[in-house]
Amino acid sequence: xxxxxxxxxxxxxxxxxxxxxxxxxxxxxxxxxxxxxxxxxxxxxxxxxxxxxxxxxxxxxxxxxxxxxxxxxxxxxxxxxxxxxxxxxxxxxxxxxxxxxxxxxxxxxxxxxxxxxxxxxxxxxxxxxxxxxxxxxxxxxxxxxxxxxxxxxxxxxxxxxxxxxxxxxxxxxxxxxxxxxxxxxxxxxxxxx
Length: 193
Hints:
The protein is mainly alpha-helical. The chain is built from six helices and six strands. β5 and β6 form a beta hairpin. α3 runs parallel beside α5. The termini are far apart. The relative contact order is 0.14. Residues 145-188 form the Zinc finger CGNR domain. This is Zf-CGNR multi-domain protein.
């Protein structure tokens, strides 16, 4: 669920957790969307599904800064891929740096019916998992399906996992419906009296 600082919220599935992470705030004009203000905010985001990484050690200010650096790198790389531009070298370097840390280690429950993350669970491990997912996305079979929303002034990016590869909107509930409404109004304005 994404929240607009002007009010309202809408359902948005980016198709990859790393892209969901990229939409937690940002720099410049996107600072109004910031959700990671302090280390506890990062811990809270990482603990939510689908990552479910309940940290066993507190997030440090340094880890929060590293998270924001990774988030910006993912944002820049995703937009470059969506626009079919070369990936920014600094973004690639930041993603690769984050991926070098040990990732989260899955652990099967005693009953064998559920999985959790093996302790200790640290922020750097979760960030490594996000970076590795972004590497897989950019170098894998879905790399040509990273898209930017076709809505006016909507910068959200997502992985188009639809069978025909025709997804255009971040959300039909938001940008898709806005587009349909504008098209309807335009048809009515130019239609017969």
